[in-house]
């Protein structure tokens, strides 16, 4: 058996977890963007079934390329294929978020994670687990607005992103919410951390699902999407292969 076939048999024997939400016309999404539209162009009465989909790139579980926020940043097709299959590290702060929906992941949280699980490897994918995905498919629960219309949701701190990108040399990060930034600072200052992240020429995956089914370390994440030309983002099928 060849090395690749042997590797295939090993991977097939592992548990695989779907990290993407199923999307349709009613899926939660950033309110400034239109919902997915789907219609039949032909049905089986015509001899074959063909559907037409109209959907923005940043819909459901999706990938953001640097060009999404940064002038001159890489388009999706410019992300190296090998950067779409990465070691996966999952930092679980779901208990803290259950107590405080505005929780912001810090550098100290990462250091505490490494003290327990070992150092995050270079060229990895780091996911911030909040269990926010359990709110899906409720748009109001995903946004979690207060009486003033401010989103109450968790996010990354700048220091955490700086540490992961420059000291741990990660390839990408991901989270379960709509945004990189927590809701309150985003309302006050805009999506500064999302801009910073993409400015560092790495990508992110937003609105991840089922991170509660993935161990802290030793899994792999695989991310796939259509081979768009000059796309700033795209819905993805992300999956984890467990050890």
UniProtKB/TrEMBL annotation:
One of its GO terms (molecular function) is arylformamidase activity. Signal peptide: none annotated. Gene3D superfamilies: Putative cyclase. GO terms for biological process: L-tryptophan catabolic process to kynurenine. It holds the Pfam family Cyclase. This is Cyclase family protein. It comes from Streptococcus pseudopneumoniae.
């Amino acid at each position: 058996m060849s090395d690749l076939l042997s590797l295939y048999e090993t991977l097939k024997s592992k548990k695989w977890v779907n990290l993407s939400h199923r999307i349709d016309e009613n899926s939660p999404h950033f309110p400034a963007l239109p919902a997915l539209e789907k219609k039949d162009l032909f049905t089986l009465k015509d001899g074959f079934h063909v559907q037409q989909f109209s959907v923005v790139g940043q819909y459901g579980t999706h990938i953001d390329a640097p060009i999404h926020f940064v002038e001159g940043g890489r388009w999706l097709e410019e992300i190296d294929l090998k950067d779409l299959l990465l070691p996966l590290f999952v930092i679980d702060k779901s208990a803290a978020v259950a107590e405080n929906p505005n929780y912001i992941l810090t550098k100290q949280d990462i250091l505490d994670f490494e003290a327990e699980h070992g150092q995050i490897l270079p060229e990895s994918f780091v996911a911030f687990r909040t269990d926010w995905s359990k709110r899906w498919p409720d748009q109001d629960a995903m946004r979690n607005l207060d009486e003033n219309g401010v989103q109450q949701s968790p996010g990354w701190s700048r220091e955490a992103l700086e540490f992961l990108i420059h000291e741990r040399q990660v390839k990408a990060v991901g989270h379960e919410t709509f945004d990189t930034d927590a809701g309150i600072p985003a309302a006050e200052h805009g999506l500064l951390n999302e801009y910073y992240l993409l400015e560092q020429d790495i990508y992110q995956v937003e609105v991840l699902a089922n991170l509660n089914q993935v161990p802290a370390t030793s899994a792999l994440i695989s991310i796939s999407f259509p081979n768009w030309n000059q796309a700033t983002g795209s819905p993805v099928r992300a999956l984890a292969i467990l050890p």
